[in-house]
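Many introductory courses stop at the sequence. We go one step further.
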Amino acid sequence: MTVSNLTRSVLFVPASRPERFAKALASGADIVVVDLEDAVAPADKLPARTALKQYLEDHPGASVIVRINAAGTGYFTSDLDLCRQQPGVKAIMVAKAQSVEVLQLAADTGKPVWPLVETALGITELPRMARVKGVERFCLGALDLGVDLGVKPDTAGAQLLLDRVRCELLLQSRVAGLEGPIETVYPSIDDETTVEQIARQASEMGFAGMLCIHPRQLPPVHRGFSPEDAELDWARRVLAAAEGAEGAFKVDGRMVDAPVIRRARLILGQAADTATL
C-alpha cells in the first residue's frame, strides 16, 4: 500500500510542534513525515507522541508517515504502538535502520515500512533489509551516515562516498522490487538553486523523491523531479513517430526501440501525474 502516487517531496515536521501539523499537510508537500526522533528532545518524547495521537484522532482524514525512534532507545515500542493504532499513519519510517529483526517488528504493525539508512551497518545490511516483507522503499540519511563513517562534510571525498551509497540503495531497491529510494535532506532552506540541482541529480539517478526540512524547499524539489520542457517535447515526438513505425526508427538522428519508447511513456506519465495536482 503506497502512501502517495507522487513522492517528490517528503516534508518533516516535529511531533513536538502540533500547531505545525495542519500547515505541513497544507504546504503542497507530496508526503508529510511527523518526526518523533531527532527533532524531539528526550524530555518531549511522551508529550509529542500524545500530541500526534490527539491530532490524528481529531482529524480522521489526515494522512502522514511517522518517523519513529530507533530500536533500543526506550521509545521504539511505544512509537510502534501508536502507529499500529492510528489509521492516519500510512507508513513507518524507521530511524537508524540496520536490523532485519527491527524492520520486521515495524512491518508487523501492518503498515508499509520506510527504512532510513544512516549507518555503516545499515549499508551492509541493505540486501537483507530489502527483502523484509512490508518494506516499501529506502530513504537516505546522509548527515548521520557521514558522521558514522567519519567523512569530512561538503568535500569531494564525501560526495564520492555518498554517491557510492546512492548507487547501492538504487541497486538493492531494484533487485528486491522496491519503490525508488528517497534522497537525503539538504540542510540549507534558503539556497533554492542547490536544492533544485540536488533534486534533479537524484531524479536522474533514479531516486523517487527527496526529504525536506522546510516548506521553502518544496518548489525547487518539485522542479528537480519534474520533466523539463525539452524532455517532454522529445517524448511526445518519440511516441508520435512510434505510432506508424515497425521495429526501430530514428528521432533526432538517434535510434529508437522498445526501451526508448518505454522511457518516453514514463516521462509523459510523470508529467501527467504532476499536472493533476
